[in-house]
Amino acid sequence: MEPVLEVKGLQAAYGSSQVLFDVSLDIGAGAMRTLLGRNGMGKTTTVRTLLGLTPSRGGEVRFLGQRIDRLSPHRIGRLGIAVVPEGRQIFPNLSVRENLTAFAANRSRQAEPWTLERIYALFPRLRERERNMGNQLSGGEQQMLAIGRALMTNPHLLILDEATEGLAPLIRQEIWDCLAALRRAGQTLLVIDKYVERLIGIADRHTIIERGRVAWEGSSAELDADPAIWQRYVGL
Ligand SMILES: Nc1ncnc2c1ncn2[C@@H]1O[C@H](COP(=O)(O)OP(=O)(O)OP(=O)(O)O)[C@@H](O)[C@H]1O
């Protein structure tokens, strides 16, 4: 079956400083892949380039078979890629409910699309906070809201950058439980996070990025069998 996302030899730069040299990866329908690597290795730039926010300088990106590496971020979003960005970017002056409904759409034409009710069932805390403004939420609540807001577009592909960064351990666990539930429900996922041991139990495949190049790629079983690999490149 054709992958949902297929990236081949992706290159990107900020001005004259090249940051991605040759990044290739694919994600099958309903699969979850992680992007791993230390700070500054190019994970966020990879995501920004997929979303059209940083122009690619070479290589190809295909989404559901269609070339997207020359499209605007707006068009890419409409095709059904949603992101939970680093730092969440919740609208501070909109309520939880308004944040969730602001971009609601059915991009992937789901027979049973995400609704407010389903988001509130996934994250009961958001229901309790329904009338609170974005800037009145804890970090964990903001992350739940950012995930809920992305799901409300019913994306073919959901990308999370720094999925659990800066969150308390119990909240981190809630986010991983949510990712596992989404994975079981057939949502295709690309996740950046640092906690390799946890991700091995949830994701299908992993890509380790080192200085803008793929240093290692493989399955959860392969990564689990070789902790030296992730200790070397991720260092936890
Ligand atoms: N807007 C920018 N202008 C110039 N250089 C940048 C910019 N954003 C990132 N970089 C540089 O590009 C490289 C890759 O950064 P990137 O944010 O993609 O890494 P990362 O793996 O996501 O790390 P982090 O977890 O710290 O975000 C780094 O050397 C960084 O300093």
Q: What tags apply to this protein structure?
A:
236 residues; alpha/beta; ABC_transporter-like_ATP-bd; 6-stranded mixed β-sheet; P-loop_NTPase; globular; 4-stranded antiparallel β-sheet; Rossmann fold
3D structure, described in words:
The protein is built from ten helices and ten strands. With 236 residues, the protein is of the alpha/beta class. Strands 6-7-8-3-9-10 form a six-stranded mixed beta sheet, sandwiched between helices. A four-stranded antiparallel beta sheet has the order 2-1-4-5, with helices on one face. The longest helix is centred in the last third of the chain and has 16 residues, at 169-184. The structure holds adenosine-5'-triphosphate. Adenosine-5'-triphosphate binds next to strand 2 and helix 1.
Query: What is the N-to-C succession of helices and strands?
Result: EEEHEEHEHHHHEHEHEEHH
SSE class: alpha/beta
C-alpha geometry: globular
Described by strand count, sense and barrel closure, the largest sheet is: 6 strands, mixed
Total number of β-strand segments?
10
Per DSSP, the total helix count is 10
| CATH class bucket of the domain at 1-80 and 192-235 | Alpha Beta
Q: What's the N-to-C terminus distance?
A: 35 Å
CATH architecture of the domain at 1-80 and 192-235: 3-Layer(aba) Sandwich
Kindly report the name of the CATH homologous superfamily of the domain at 1-80 and 192-235.
Answer: P-loop containing nucleotide triphosphate hydrolases
Q: What's the pLDDT, averaged over the residues?
A: 95
CATH topology of the domain at 1-80 and 192-235: Rossmann fold
Low-confidence stretches: none
Radius of gyration using CA atoms only: 17 Å
Strand content: 25-35%
Bound small-molecule species: adenosine-5'-triphosphate
Strand order of the largest sheet: 6-7-8-3-9-10
Helix content: 25-40%
